[in-house]
Amino acid sequence: MHESNVRKRKRQTEEENASQNSGNESSQRRLQESPANNSFMASIALTTVLFALLCVYGYYSSPINAVEITGVVEVPFEGSFALNRKLSKGKRIPIHAPESCVEASDKKIYLSLHDGRIVCIHPSSDGEIGAGKVENITTGIIQGAATTSDAWGHGRPLGLRLRENSLYVMDAIYGFYVVDLPTKSIKILVKPDDVSPPMKFPDDFDITADGKTVYFTDASAKYPIPLLVQEVLEGSCTGRILKYDMVSQKLEVVRDGLCFPN
Ligand SMILES: *[C@@H]1O[C@H](CO)[C@@H](O)[C@H](O)[C@H]1NC(C)=O
Q: Looking at the Swiss-Prot or TrEMBL record, what is one Pfam family this protein matches (predicted)?
């Protein structure tokens, strides 16, 4: 009984193997000969050719003129750059992408947001910084002003500096302006096309101690901030440092050919 079962199983296995082999052979033959398979291979070849053509078309029609960046120095995450978790315990305030932040002596914080607004975060009633109400200082839109790009329909303040009641702003869309905090009125000081070639990406700045001169960066003379991805992909060096004299209102280029001076 036991032996015959074993033999039966063995025979079954042999038969199964044999039928599988013959199945494999015949299916291989089918694969080689079937018209369906030929058209499958043809469609793969066609897709590959079309994809290659698309890549070539994309390469030549792209506005991006990629350049190789050389001389990049790797900085190890050590010393002052060592990883830490100091910011992980903070309280989250629901505002989007504040790029610049200044703290006033009265414990108010001014922030420049992604939607173009500048807001002030008041201290709480018991004096805790950043814990009070959020007040709109600007709307983010300066009607009728010259722009580096109209794609977003609002500004993008990047750099902020406070001098008494004047909040100076470098805006990637509108250029350089100053907000008088008591009245919230805006005065434009440098427009994007005040220099040739026009600024495309006014970015950040500093004011000399005597308050008379502003040095600022135009990160790109080619792509405005809504096309930041193109700028990053291309890697060309069209950025500049400009100098603005607040007294004579004279504007001059101090350095050009810089690689995205952010
Ligand atoms: C500030 O401006 C935003 C965007 O326009 C608006 O939604 C919000 O209600 C304003 N906040 C106050 C306190 O007026």
A: SSL_N
- For residue range 191-203, what is the model confidence (pLDDT) as tens digits? 999 999 999 999 9
Ligand 1: centre distance to CA 85 (Å): 32
Q: 36 CA distance to ligand 1 centroid (A)?
A: 63
Evaluate whether residue 158 is within a structural domain. Answer: yes
54 and 126 inside one domain:
no
Number of domains within the chain: 2
Query: Torsion angle, CA of 59/200/207/195, rounded to 10 degrees?
Result: 120
Per-residue pLDDT band for 26 (boundaries 50, 70, 90) equals low
CA of 141 to the centre of ligand 1 (A): 13
Domain range for 58? 36-65
Gap from CA of 249 to ligand 1 centroid (Å): 34
Residue 176 lies in a domain: yes
